[in-house]
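Board notes (copied after class):
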Amino acid sequence: IILNLPFALIGGVVALWLTKEYLSVPASVGFINLFGVAVLNGIVLVSYMNKLREDGHSLEEAVTSGALLRLRPVLMTALVALLGLVPLAFANGIGSEVQRPLAIVVIGGLVSSTLLTLIMLPVLYQWLEGRATGGGAPSELRGGSVPAVHSAAGDTPHGNGELRPARRPDGMPST
């Protein structure tokens, strides 16, 4: 999810450069705002892919389905923030010198961040998750042994055949 921040930074810096605005305090506040929305979009996308993986979907299926099913929420989050700042970007009245750099940074960053989040984040997720799991193949297909699952009272099926440990009242897994 942190890999999503450079995607936002690229758009904000390019937008400032194209409009010949300076990096000022309001522009810096715009970057903070932009990073918040970019991280939110990354969390929406990655958390859904993680949920699909927990439910037993393959890595490729989780990435493809997650990107397609979270396209609308990511676009709506970015579009709401972007459309709300369009009037500030075109302001010419009193105080516009404060509003304009903030709006330009957020609008430019949201455009690049949203596009790169929807294209690059699933690719990076699949690459990093595939490396972490050894290519995403189950251990029995790689020739390894599958660890034994010990069932305790209250354990529930997980979705991928494994048992989810029962939880104590304080929310911690029972041992």
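Comment from the instructor: The first helix runs from residue 5 to 18. DSSP finds six helices and two strands in the chain.
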